Amino acid sequence: MADNKKLKFLKTILPGRILAESKRTDEELVQVELTTPDHLDGFMSTIHRLVLVTRNKSTGEEKTSNLMVKVMKGDQSFRDSCQSPKQFCNEIFIYTKVIPCFQQLLESSKCSVRGDRWCPKVVFGVAGKIPEYSDCSETILVMENIALEGFKAGPRNDLDEDHLVLMARNIAQFHACTYAMKITKDPRLEELVKGIIPFDFVSEGKVLDSYAMFFKMGLDRLFEYLDKNPKLLDSERFKNDISALRSRYAEAPVHLMQKLLHQDEFSVILHGDYNRNNVLFKYENGKPVDIRMFDFQENRYGTPAIDLTFFMCMSMPTGLRERFWYPLLEQYHDSLMLTLTDILKCDTNDPRLAPFSYENFKKHLQRYGMYGGMIAVHFLPWMICPEEECAQLAFHFANDMYSPEMKHWLNTAGGEAVDIRLTEVFKHLSLQGYFAVVHED
């Protein structure tokens, strides 16, 4: 019954509100088609396809709008455990306030970067009570369906250099807007940062239980594998780093994650969940040439390492990771400086840019670079396990994330391939000195 109420709202009431929000008062609805493809669902959202056919009241000309409607999954208990309402409100804030502000910044400075090419265009967003939809507090986000423009998902997890460079250079442009506003002391930045509801792993001594469990189980799995294969601890540095991680954070790694949310001069408005599953690529002759990002649910104001090391630890296979780690960071930083100098109309020797130099950026990453490894330790099994195992994880996550079945799949999904990959990721982070934060008092 509840689902029928929701579907009725999406099909009969929402279209009119979309037209009103878009100021398309000269158009009337001719046809509405609503479908719900299973493969588009996110971990905390359901995504519907909505096709609107409208007719101009004066000319009779018909127009078809292909849209995606994103709504929250689960009952109130599930949403509360994941802090879904907070995440979805933040996502709407990014689309409706942050990105438009960044676009205005780019346009007013006559920058060659176009902010309207970062994401699908949002045509409607609302958060709060929607009585016609449900009795709970809800969020509804409606975006253009860019699949019709040729954008599609990339490889399931592992990316090659072309994909990785697109991701790095794209997010650098987004980050550059925060730095430009910092440098020019733009008063709008403070308002944007204040508008993001803090999404902490630990707040006032209380931990975010669902994340705490996933981080702990991920580390437990890694430690268990290393105990069975001690020869993999093949250097004193790696052995000491893993020992410190175990002694300090094995019981509650969520506190390490909270430590990595510390803000400093490098802090920017983040995507927060910048990974292969939250971007779409456009291809020409099999090569990725353009990118769009979406799903800003976990956005924060914090270290750029959150957006960078997430996808680098997840999607750089062994071999490429070791060879291309720093060239990719250079691509990011080059794009960052290129965008900054274009916005500010200065050259790279401008003293205002000195705090954000590549050397300072690399030092910053040594303090915050563990973030990607800690994400990978719990999320990599989802992304590289067989699809049937991923379906089991998704099912138990939605129905009872604390169940024995969920814990079983978290500990086994992907088999030894996951264990080996995670060991290689952590060994790489150790070699780069990214365990420094683990050793801090």
How would you explain this protein's 3D organization?
- With 441 residues, this protein is of the alpha+beta class.
- It has two domains: 303 residues, no CATH class; 130 residues, no CATH class.
- Helix content is 52%, strand content 16%.
- It has 16 helices and twelve strands.
- It has a five-stranded antiparallel β-sheet with strand order 1-2-3-5-4. The protein has a three-stranded antiparallel β-sheet with strand order 6-10-11, covered by helices on one side.
- Strand 10 and strand 11 form a beta hairpin.
- Helix 9 crosses helix 12 and helix 12 crosses helix 13.
- The longest helix is centred in the N-terminal third of the chain and has 25 residues.
- The mean pLDDT is 93.
Topology:
Blueprint: H1 2-21, E1 27-35, E2 45-56, E3 62-72, H2 76-82, H3 84-108, E4 122-129, E5 137-144, E6 151-152, H4 161-183, H5 187-195, E7 202-203, E8 206-207, H6 209-228, H7 236-249, H8 254-259, E9 268-269, E10 279-284, E11 287-293, E12 301-302, H9 305-315, H10 320-344, H11 358-368, H12 370-384, H13 387-400, H14 404-412, H15 415-431, H16 436-439
Antiparallel strand pairs: 1-2, 2-3, 3-5, 4-5, 6-10, 7-8, 9-12, 10-11
Helix pairs in contact: 4-10, 6-12, 9-12, 12-13, 12-15, 13-14
